[in-house]
Amino acid sequence: MNKSELVEKIAAGAGLSKVDAKKALDATVAAIKDALVAGDKIALVGFGTFSVNKRPAREGINPATKQKIKIAAKKVAKFKAGAELADAIK
Question: How far out from the chain centre does Cα 67 lie?
């Protein structure tokens, strides 16, 4: 499912126009992004939790040359599905 298909589903499910559904989706995604950038955790009961994890620097191997390389530390977005979502997928 791509963004336009998701907008159609939201519009149909909430009785909104596609324009309003797109605005709502964009605002939701922006709010989640802003919270993650600020280091906050977003918990949507029944759906899941978004958070930021810190990966430490580590040593890896370049598969082409087999030489050791240093992989820099970085932050990554993480999503953990809630119990209701996990049960629905089963």
Answer: 33
CA atoms within a 13 Å half-sphere pointing along the CA-CB vector of 86: 8
Amino acid identity, position 31: A
5-50 pLDDT, tens digit per residue, is 999 999 999 999 999 999 999 999 999 999 999 999 999 999 999 9
In Å, how far are 32, 61, 62 from 65, measured between CA atoms?
40, 8, 6
pTM: 0.79
CA distance 90 to 31: 29
Element holding 79 (H helix, E strand): strand 74-81
